[in-house]
Amino acid sequence: MRPGFTFRPLTRADLPLLHEWLNRPHVAEWWQGDSSFEHVERTHGADLDSDVIWQFFACLGGVPVGYVQRYRVMGADPDWWQDETDPGARGVDQFLANAEQLGRGLGSQMVRQFVAELFADAQVSSVQTDPAPSNARAIRAYEKAGFQRERELETPDGPALLMRITRQEWLRDAAKREAYQAVRERLSSLLADEDDLIAAQATIACELHQSFDTFDWTGFYRTREPELLVIGPYQGTHGCLRIPFSRGVCGAAARTRQTQRVPDVSKFEGHIACSGSTQSEIVVPIVTAAGKVLGVLDVDSNTLDAFSELDRAELEAICADLALRFPNG
Description:
10 helices, 2 domains, about 325 residues, 7-stranded mixed sheet, 13 strands
């Protein structure tokens, strides 16, 4: 299991390090503006005395690796969110400090943990954020943490994508988050010394299928020939034996190397009906660091819109671990 983050309040002694972080290219690209230390003192330094904005260093093993700020949306700034009337609304902004830690799921993990701490306060009703519409990495991190896209809008800093997660949505997924954590712990033990991909896939399919009531078909398709998926270990009724990359939801995931979350399979052009009872589906590609598609993890449900961004994040993490452990298949 990944180590958890701790969040310690920012102090004035931290401003030089924050200034250095803000000037790193991958941060400066999105945190635009005056990058001088004087500006950091005038802005972040002044916010240290605020009663509506709170800043933190996110730490792993006691070492600062990221920055997070939370704020009370209503009244945080006279030029921002002037229509907000909910005193329980909170906002967050964040970044990871080290470029080499990007793309590993740490950003979404950091956001999820920070949001969990926010919702521990019963007065917090929702949490929002506003990344730039072109900041795909940040948007995916927030989506993996459960945020939903609402709308694009103009802010004093330019175009932004308003994203939000409500307390109700967070609590709705609480039981599923705990179930996934239990699955991860069991898989970590069961697969600790396993060096066979098919054995690992069979174990994963069993654990997932037995853990979630809405997972009515759970299994893997393996890339056995160029542009062709062949059925692998699975749980449930009979599946399609072979699926070209050019067909269906599984083929789309393998072809595009992107997760396909389909709330209603009847509206997915080219859907292959391996089972007439399937109503929604999620398919996650297994892609190695070298770009090789080992196959896909496919989960079907007899319930409409059964899969959330939480499912996407958790299943993607499982597939990423498979790709890392079995780079040659």
